[in-house]
Amino acid sequence: MIKKITAENFKKYGRIIEYSGKHPEDKNANLFCIVLRENKKSGWRIAYLVLRDRIIGMLEQHPGSFESFEPVHGRCLIYLSGKRNAEIECFYLDRPVILKKGIWHGVVTLTPESEIKITENADVKRMLWKLKTPING
């Protein structure tokens, strides 16, 4: 018999990758939670992002970590740049990607919300680049 995966019937094998954190009062806020983190400082973590941003005012980068963006639901765009204050390119995020270390990035949704699985270094450092003009997805 084929079973539908539920949190209950799957827990002896692992866990479902989904948003399981608290929902804030602000219904427009993005939701982000760590789904799995290795206890080792040099390990990885898996996160789940419920993206509601349609405009971004900054890009971020992680100089010491690769980062995956794996779309699960909705339609979204990813903005990328190799260097701060350089050209920013936009891609339709319709398949899983891995960003190199130090790539500037930001994501916006084209639907009311998009859901993205993210994998990155457990001890990720974050740098921000405030854009002169916000980007409207």
Describe the structure.
The structure is a single chain. The protein has one helix spanning 7-10; strands at 31-37, 44-51, 55-61, 67-73, 76-81, 89-92, 97-99, 104-109, 114-121, 127-136. By secondary structure, the protein is mainly beta. The chain has one domain (7-136): Jelly Rolls (Sandwich), CATH 2.60.120. The longest helix is centred in the N-terminal third of the chain and has 4 residues, at 7-10.
Give the distance, in angstroms, between the N- and C-terminal Cα atoms: 44 Å
Beta strand %: over 45%
CA radius of gyration is: 16 Å
- The CATH architecture comes to Sandwich
Helix/strand-derived category reads: mainly beta
In DSSP terms (H or I, runs of 4 or more residues), the helix count works out at 1
Mean pLDDT: 87
How would you sum up the global shape?
globular
Parts with pLDDT < 50 across at least 5 consecutive residues:
none
Count the domains.
1
What attributes characterize this protein structure?
10 strands, mainly beta, 3% helix, Jelly Rolls, five-stranded antiparallel beta sheet, 137 residues, three-stranded antiparallel beta sheet
